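Quick one - inputs below.
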Amino acid sequence: MTATTEHRSRAGRSAGGSSGGPLVIRRGHRRLGHPRRRRSTLLTLLTAIMLIYTLLPLAWLAINATKTQTGLFRSFGLWFDRDFALFGNIADTFTYDGGIFTRWLLNTLLYVIVGAGGATLLATLAGYGLAKFDFPGKKAVFAIVIGAVAVPGTALAVPTFLMFSNLGLTNSPWAIIIPSLVSPFGLYLMWTYAADAVPTEILESARVDGAREFQTFFRISLPLLSPGIVTVLLFNFVVTWNNYFLPLIMLKDPDWYPLTLGLKSWNAQAATAGGEAIFNLVITGSLLTIVPLVVAFLLLQRYWQSGLAAGSVKE
Amino acid sequence: MTMTRRHTLLLGAALSMSLIATACGSSTGGDSGAATTKPAGTQANAATDVDAALNAGGTITVWAWEPTLKQVVADFQAKYPKVKVNLVNAGTGNDQYTALQNAIKAGSGVPDVAQIEYYALPQFALSKSVTDLTAYGADKLDGTFTPGPWNSVRSGSAIYGLPMDSGPMALFYNKEVFDKYKIAVPATWEDYIAAAKKLHAADPKAYITNDTGDAGFTTSMIWQAGGKPYQVDGTNVTINFADPGTQRFTAAWQQLVSGKLVAPISSWSDAWYKGLGDGSIATLVIGAWMPANLEGGVKAGSGKWQVAPMPQWEAGGKATAENGGSSLAVPELGANKALAYAFIKYADVEQGVQTRMDGGAFPATTAELNSPAFKDKPFPYFGGQKVNQVLAESAGEVVPGWSYLPYQVYANSIFNDTVGKAYVSGTTLQDGLKAWQDASVKYGQEQGFSVQ
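Output:
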């Protein structure tokens, strides 16, 4: 939850400046350079409300993951039941139905590492290329990328399904990984970031010194781009981790499900004649599902924040 | 320079990958195409085909969400070691039908066996998406199944699936609540309404049942009341919710809805499970498969629930209806139909039936329903009551002559947009059903049916 919200605010910020990325960085620069200590009661209050609003579902999730199936029904939603069953629930989540939860977790990791990692790599390469090289048709590429940002992935899911079905790729991990590799928003972000963070002068001097383009990219540009890369990586990580609709229509075999679909199928058991209601495992599974997201944000946040500042040091 | 070369390399890799993919796709398509065009052969040949398929072995994919099938598959594979069954839960009900329709439309990825509920089967049967099983000897199974499910899988002389389970309806009630407020178990719907009023007056938090508009429940209730709103003859369909049977149901049920005597809780939600456990939902009029769900999902209700015959429209009557239940069918595009039939016969007629009953499923076969071991089994959850006696009797009293629409899946999906309004606004159930009828007629005409 937190992850998504933080992301939105980041995305909102960059979209706020009409000229895109560079503005974000300059703004950050100004804020850092001249810290203003003015406080606003209204803003503090609004932020506090926002904080509670964001944390409440998390608190609910954490509290209810400690309850048994029976405990869930007999206790108040935002407080603990007399039986504390968190560890039992976690053990059951990992062992239920032959330990399929572990399989879903590994699937999700596969989709995230290959899909989100690949998307970040492609976005970095393409964004850098578009920012630092002039070639005919650049404007057309720009228009296509901006257009692609505007099309929601959900709208493309069904055509993608039909296409993959013709290729015989549905119901396989490729059906999730290949579409995940495409991230127009990530590309746009890298593009605007690279335009600003990598001074053309450095590139020129590297060329003068006889460095090849790939050498320049890996030795000089990549370190300068790393804050942007982390941002795009986090963004793709969240999107792929939470991906639901695409796997829903692409995958039929539960052995390839990501966590999102797997948890949904557990939830659907309660609505099946003869099915077993396992709300406690659905809740515990959901809690376990968001842990890696939270961890990734806490760990990468530092790079990301320092990155925003680092990118702003520009003459 | 380097860049360009890399570029070409990447492009080449991408191209070859898509070529491989295309090759895979077309080969699968070719296989299923061959299977479709292969003549089914004479009946005698087909029966030996089934045995031959079992001996030859092979792999089949089964799409089903029914939990007891897991054990059936394990036993089947142990008995026929050359056969491999991939049991896939491709979603429950509607999700699975959408997936199945998509796969059929795309012509690839179609399973060999699919679980299809009785209400949805006509839709797949009419479009010839599922195989007529008479060619494999299914017509010889006449009398094996109870009339309700058996009629649900047949259309004319064709048989489009084998009944897996059945849901003859009964009244499940929380005896503790009934005893507490000294309410008699209702034998008629009139009694039921009186009980609803008495209970809610005694405890404003308690309701006789829950209902927020459920297409399956409503059609089953109309079924029991003798209504026949759907008349289907091939592609000629008549829909009429103004018939006396339907009006009988709406007149009674409207009193419960208008009087706010039914809990505004949707079935299968977490609140529903909670209500079934704490006594705030006192009865359910539902299919015979319910005991397994109560035992598994409502542990707090153990020892409190009992089963009684479904309330009647006429005192002394015995009429019931089917609620839910599903069949196993063989999609037309499946690659190994003989083996698929061997599996569904094993699961629905042979040893699989007992395995599934042991797992808590309610059978559709007359032999099992009439066996003393089944009828005399006490249920500890129901305070030791032999609930199968009530349920098996219900199976024999299902009102004949009911049929669903050949596009009931769609119709049920718009139920809440039309009849659902009766639960949240001033619309009456009868008006809601009229709106449902109009929308269903319109959709049917768009689909090329001749609907009145």
